[in-house]
Amino acid sequence: MIDIDLRDFDNSREKLDNGLIKILRKISTTMYGYPTVLWTGNGYHIYQPMEGFILEEEERFARFADSVGKDLTSKFMQFAEEFLTNKKGDPQHNPSVYSCLVRIPGTINSKCGQEVTNSSALGWSKACNTVSVTQFHTMAHS
Length: 142
Hints:
This protein is 35% helix and 16% strand. By secondary structure, it is an alpha+beta fold. The longest helix is centred in the N-terminal third of the chain and has 19 residues, at 13-31. The chain is globular.
């Protein structure tokens, strides 16, 4: 899940929309994804389902596990957001497997009083395709 906000683009909707286009292009070219995009009233939420596994249980990732810190999946979610947005995502956004706000189209965003709308061309059910963690890793390092 990616969160980009107007305030991080000089409160310019044009700059925000250009940033969104770059992010969607990067998702498309690096992982062949086609995410759902929601206008939240203050920016965009971008949802790209990913098929994966528990990173700590895979031998090649287990050595990166931090017994005191964040789980690897949460670290991966934050890395993916930074990578796909070129670090232009909301700095206050810290998704984890334990806490990840999902906006629902048709509801009101209490922060700004605006309705959350689906900005994806094909809508929620047809716009998303699942991308595997392995596919993302391969494409991100090529």
